[in-house]
Fold this sequence. Notes:
The protein has 198 residues and is an alpha+beta fold. It has helices spanning 3-49, 59-88, 99-140, and strands at 148-154, 158-166, 170-175, 179-184, 188-193.
Amino acid sequence: MSTRSERRWAELARDLEFTRLPELRRQAEGWRTGLGGLTALLAVLVLLKGRDNLGDLPEAARATATGLLVTGFVLLVLGSLLAARAAHGAPEREILLGGQALRRWTGQEVARVTRALAWAYLLCVLGVILVVGALVIAWLTTQDSGTQPVVVRTNTVVMCGDLIVADQHHMEISSKTDGTVSLPWTAVVSVKPGKTCD
Length: 198
């Protein structure tokens, strides 16, 4: 390497001390924009592509999916706020006029911005993982059975079974004791939802 090239590299290394904070601010601005866009995109995906109703999930899956979603969005919002803090800094009360004070403040601010960016990155990754986990739970979890147990009372008998079909002419239930039974509505006195059929 030539002497001129070495001198130029040395000058750039000396200038790096003065350009590091603006460079970190630009990097933080990009992160803030990216995190905001990602949070908005995930919110749209959850609203448009998720289940119509988390109430369709079993109790444990509903609580888990809701907890993951809320925690994930909180982490994404916190990550966005940290990236915004890193990009724009905190309001300062004093104006630094001395060279040493400005140098000290710049060193501290570089450390704060670097730390805020690291936390923003970590919170973003964790938030995305939690939101994706909630979506996977919501999409893959189903009720134990697609049928609804019912108790049917007719003029002569009381039957319990899973409701298969009900239209304007008849209803069909699947009973453990009687198999599939079709009952015309004229024979049905009452139909009540049941929890289980013993």
